[in-house]
Structure formats: structure tokens, C-alpha cells
Amino acid sequence: MAQAIVADVISPRERGRHQAYLSGVWAAASIGGPVPGSVFVDHRNWRSAFWINLPVGIVALVLDRRALALATRRAQRRMDYLSAALLTFAVSDLLMNFTWGRTSYGRTSSRLLTLMAMAPPLVIAVMLQELRAPEPVLPPRLFANSVVGTETLASFVIAMAMFGGVVLLPVFLQLVTGVGAGHSGVLLIPLMAGSVVGAFASGQMMRRTTTRSYR
Q1: Residue 16, exposed/middle/buried by CB under 10 A (0-12, 13-18, 19+)?
Q2: 3-state class of 158 per DSSP?
Q3: For 145, phi and psi rounded to 5 degrees?
Q4: What are phi and psi of 86, to 5 degrees?
Q5: Section 14-28 average pLDDT
Q6: Distance between CA atoms of 202 and 23, rounded to whole angstroms?
Q7: Are the C-beta atoms of 19 and 207 separated by less than 8 Å?
Q8: What is the pLDDT of residue 151?
Q9: Which pLDDT value is given to residue 62?
Q10: How far apart are the C-alpha atoms of 96 and 11, rounded to whole Å?
Q11: Are 200 and 207 in contact, with CB atoms under 8 Å apart?
Q12: So what's the pLDDT on residue 72?
């Protein structure tokens, strides 16, 4: 949502600078987040770590609402509720397949087989609805653009590597090396610091190249 807001209300010449601001927030959250989160896990339970997002999210929502009210014109749009609902059901079905099939139920259980049978029709229904909707949630025409297609593929590979490491490394550190949750959060700092430096550097590079292209 932050990326979409920047693209919607900021001119192309200034987007690189605001991307650098986002990188700064990402830096603080990536380095500062795992440590207090791991303390919550050590001294309370892992579910309590998610309460940290609520006050931050409320403040961000209020600020975004005020900024968008000042910077944009209201236009009458048709929300594609059916696409959103189908997409939610399809993603939830796939996630339950991957999660329950490994931990809660066997691969031959009737509940899991039902979910597996529902997945292909739901995915197909999402695709068909996106093709016929006047204002789809995921416009198919975007993926015909080579820039968008390449960027989406790159983002998928990068996110898979990054979030795979962020999820699996704490498990490895705690179960194999025997460190606590708090210590594993500290050990993640070098990984997150590297990603932060890369994000900030790319934001600055985009700012300079974008500014030159618009002179």
C-alpha cells in the first residue's frame, strides 16, 4: 500500500526520494523489529508480538488518510468485490493446503482432499473474473508489459529468498544451535542490515537516474 500511495500522489521526478524515505523506515523496522519481537516470544508468547503492529498501523492509517485527502481528487470507482473475495478464498485455500497437509492432517484426509479439489476452480475463477471485470484487482494487461513481468518475477525470487531466510534462520538457530528466541533475533541483524543497505542504495540510485531522465 505504501508503494501504491507513492506512485499515486508523487510525481515521477520525486518518487526516488520518497522511496529512500520508505527504505529508512524499512531499515528501522528490519533491524529493530526482530529483537523486541523475540523478547515478546521469550517472556510472553509469539502471538503477543503481533500486537506491536496495531498502534503503528493506526497512526499510519490516520496520516495516510490526511495526506491523501489533501493530495488527491476523488473519483467514482467501482470496487471489484467479487475478485477480492475470490482471490481471498483462493489464497486461503492454498495456504491451508500447504499448512494442514504438513502438520494437522494427512495427505489422504477427506478435508485436505476437498481443499485440494477446490484450489484449481478458485484460481480459474479469479482469472476469469479479472478478465471480465471493468476495474479488476489485478489487471491482466499489466503482465503483458515486459517491464512489469520482469519486475514481478524478480520480486518473487527476491521475496522467496529473503522471507525464506527470515523464517527459517530463526528456526535453525533455535533448534540446531540451541540459542534462545532473543539471541536469534540479534543474530538476524546482519542479514537485515544487508537488505536495508541494498534497499537504500537502490532508492538513491533510482532517484538520481529518474531525475536525469526528466531534465
Answers
A1: buried
A2: helix
A3: -75, 125
A4: -65, -40
A5: 71
A6: 9
A7: yes
A8: 81
A9: 87
A10: 41
A11: no
A12: 55
